[in-house]
Amino acid sequence: MDGDTLYSIGELARRTGLTVKAIRFYSDRGIVAPTDRSPAGYRLYDIDAVARLDLVRTLRELGVDLPTIRRVVEQDLSLPEVAATHAEALAVQIRVLRLRHAVLTAVAERGLTAEETDLMHKLARLSEDERRRLIEDFLDAAFGSLETDSALAGIRRSMTPDVPDSAEAEQVRAWVEWAELAADPDFRATMRRMTEDHAAEQAQGTTGPRRDLGAVVRDHAGSALAGGIAPRSRRAEPIVAALAAHHAHALGRPDDMELRRLLLARLGRMSDPRRNRYLQLLAVINGWPAPENLVPAVTWSIEAVRVRMER
Fold first, then answer.
1. In Å, how far are 52, 70, 89, 292 from 86, measured between CA atoms?
2. What is the CATH number of domain 2-73?
3. Domain residues of the chain, as ranges?
4. 179 Cβ neighbours under 8 A, 6+ residues apart
5. What is the pLDDT along the chain (311 residues), one digit of tens a residue?
6. Residue 215 Cα distances to 173, 211, 219, 225, angstroms
7. Cα 21 to the center of its chain, rounded Å
8. Burial class for 148, CB neighbours closer than 10 Å (0-12, 13-18, 19+)
9. ∠ at Cα 206 (234, 156), nearest 5°?
10. Residue 304 Cα distances to 192, 198, 220, angstroms
11. Read out DSSP for the chain?
């Protein structure tokens, strides 16, 4: 019977699929010791050696080191304990590999210089506390002292990236680009001005519903774009009037030339493509649906308002 049979190292190799050299290596280190020796001094192994070698091969393929494997075989450590420890270690390795993959992919796609690559690598490797400080620093620059209004406090929360611990490569790449964008002083100034625009509208507007200008642009100018209405055409007149009326209502002032200038400046800040990119990156990082791109509708609105101010 198999339980009483002893196998030579060659026979054991054939049963396990391991090489003679590998079995001799494990045997020399006491991981799978021989059961006996033949009269000629050759090593002999029992059926239990087959099971131990199968376990050893499995653990080695999973990346477990030899000292740990020996302790498992000798029952100093339980297999579940070893599995839990190595699963945790693998999770760390996977995160590191995702970071490296994200950085290398971005370098290849964006043609970065050595200095930009180094910066990207450092941004990708930021700790959770470092990421939080960077995020808060940007949001403070954009919203600080203004979010006493509940609506602005809500906007601040909606503009906050939340990088998951098990971020995918795409999320890591988005985070790195977000961090680069958030560190741009000119973009920070633009975002601050847009926040101040919103705060002014909320503070000075009359009572009643206060729709965001972006929503009005989307509804009116977006529909005009979809309908093929040119911004210089007569059909654009009521759309411009609606935009001006909304802004006049928001600021609590009459629709005159100065109001149109204010509206044009507000639309100009809204048309900054970096704002749209920020929202796209935020959606990727947070796992949200892709946002609607308002830039075409805002650009249409700018031309429609400007041409009527020039007449």
1. 19, 15, 5, 43
2. 1.10.1660.10
3. 2-73, 80-117, 130-309
4. 123, 126, 134
5. 455 688 889 998 898 888 999 999 988 888 888 888 888 888 888 888 888 888 888 888 878 888 888 888 878 767 787 777 777 767 766 766 776 776 677 677 777 677 767 766 676 777 778 888 889 999 999 998 886 666 788 889 999 999 887 777 788 888 888 988 998 999 999 999 999 888 888 776 445 446 789 999 999 999 999 999 999 999 999 999 999 999 999 888 999 999 999 999 999 999 999 999 999 999 999 999 999 999 999 999 999 999 999 87
6. 29, 7, 6, 15
7. 46
8. exposed
9. 95
10. 26, 22, 12
11. -GGG--EEHHHHHHHH---HHHHHHHHHTTSS--SEE-TTS-EEE-HHHHHHHHHHHHHHHTT--HHHHHHHHTTSS-HHHHHHHHHHHHHHHHHHHHHHHHHHHHHHHHT--HHHHHHHHHHHT--HHHHHHHHHHHHHHHHTTTTTSHHHHHHHHHT-----TT--HHHHHHHHHHHHHHT-HHHHHHHHHHHHHHHHHHHHSPSS----HHHHHHHHHHHHHHTT--TTSGGGHHHHHHHHHHHHHHHTS--SHHHHHHHHHHHHHHT-HHHHHHHHHHHHHHTPPPPP--HHHHHHHHHHHHHHH--
Q: What is the pTM of this model?
A: 0.63
Looking at residue 196, its amino acid is: E
Q: At what angle do helices 237-251 and 257-270 cross, to 10 degrees?
A: 90
Strand partners, 37: 43
Tokens at residue 134, please? 């960077």
**C-alpha to C-alpha distance for 256 and 253, rounded to whole angstroms:** 9
Per-residue tokens: 135: 């995020």
Whether the CA torsion 243, 249, 254, 260 is positive or negative: it is negative
